[in-house]
Amino acid sequence: MIFRILMLITLLLVSCFTQADTIKPFTSDGCSAFPDGTFEQESLWLKCCQRHDFDYWQGGTYQQRLASDNRLEMCVSQVGEPTIAALMLAGVRVGGTPYLPTSFRWGYGWSYPRLYGVLSAEELNQVTRLSAHLRFTKN
After folding, report:
1. CA 115 to mean position of chain CA atoms
2. What is the pTM of this model?
3. What domain count does the chain have?
4. pLDDT digit string (tens) for 82-91?
């Protein structure tokens, strides 16, 4: 009985901390739970969010996430919405953690859990192959 419990615990721990080795194709939901723009310009900062989604899809280190979140804030500020940019930054800093099993978490292209870490050469090759056709432009 104790052996079975230990085996079950071991299997659960291994499955929780084993990182996937295959990334899913890139997807973007725009600005996730936030509008993509204003009432007058419905997709004003959508490109900012799509680029941010790309970063989150591939994941990486904590510093890469911080840089991505700061780029999102700068991008939205540059389209003339610094207050919205500050709100978005607060939202992604809290809601984008890789520790929650959300569809918009850091590293969402990989199976959950995918924590912070440097991508291997093979993982970077996968990202490159799956993103070769993608184009992101500034607003």
Report:
1. 11
2. 0.81
3. 1
4. 999 999 999 9
